[in-house]
Amino acid sequence: MKKANSVVILDFETTGLSPVQGDRAIEIGAVRLVDGKVEQQFQRLMNPGRPISAFIAQYTGITNQMLATAQPCAQVMAEFADFIADDNLIAHNAQFDKRFLDAELERIGRHYSGQFGCSLLVSRRLFQQAPNHKLGTLVDFHNLAVEGDFHRALFDAQMTAKVWQVMLNHISYRYNIKDIPFSLMQKVAKTSKSKVATLLGQFEVN
DNA sequence: TGCCAGGCCCTCTTTAGGGCCTT
């Protein structure tokens, strides 16, 4: 039974930037938020079947040795497809993670039915005063507690979840809106910066 | 041989260019 306010926040580490150019996933991390609380976590390394570059090893801290004993992508992604079920999905710069999720699931003939939300796009609308909208910068900007390493999938998913919660709380407090639906966050992401206040004002409870 | 991501978004815009983000 799907819970109405359940969402999966995910992050991929990969061999590079483009699945079209042959890049593969090497780690998936995700948290399931239900009514704003982390109810489940998912983290797996996966073996892409080829060595990763020195740059990716340095960038992520994931080594070829670590991947040598990991399950293959197909096995991990099948487990992850089961994990996400039909929940909506969130990622920081979602178009990047969506491309890899689509490519990896296509390889194993699996699909998902949820929509993708993007914490980067929402942040650009809500926090125009932030120095930039990189995940690490937003964690600093909002003074969020950090215990882990950036550029590892589960940690980045956890931090994205915290940023998402900050944004929900900001809208809830600023506009007095309770129980903000996923669909409203999607509207925020698609609205121009100059019109976001007007959009949210329409939902304000006086 | 040579090249190599791509969608969003701003602006000195729309007959375009370049920075931002993700690994």
Helix and strand arrangement:
Layout: E1 6-14, E2 25-34, E3 37-45, H1 54-60, H2 64-68, H3 73-84, E4 88-91, H4 94-108, E5 116-118, H5 119-126, H6 135-141, H7 153-175, H8 182-190, H9 196-201
Helix pairs in contact: 3-4, 5-7, 5-8, 6-7
This protein binds one DNA strand of 23 nucleotides through β1, α1, α4 and α5.
* Oligomeric composition of the shown chains: single chain
Structural class: alpha/beta
The name CATH uses for the topology is Nucleotidyltransferase, domain 5
By CATH reckoning, the class would read Alpha Beta
In CATH, the architecture is 2-Layer Sandwich
Strand order of the largest sheet: 3-2-1-4-5
Q: How many structural domains in the coordinates? A: 1
Structural features, described:
This protein is 45% helix and 17% strand. The chain has helices at residues 54-60, 64-68, 73-84, 94-108, 119-126, 135-141, 153-175, 182-190, 196-201, and strands at residues 6-14, 25-34, 37-45, 88-91, 116-118. The protein has a five-stranded mixed sheet, with helices on both faces. It is globular. The mean pLDDT is 94. The structure holds one DNA strand of 23 nucleotides.
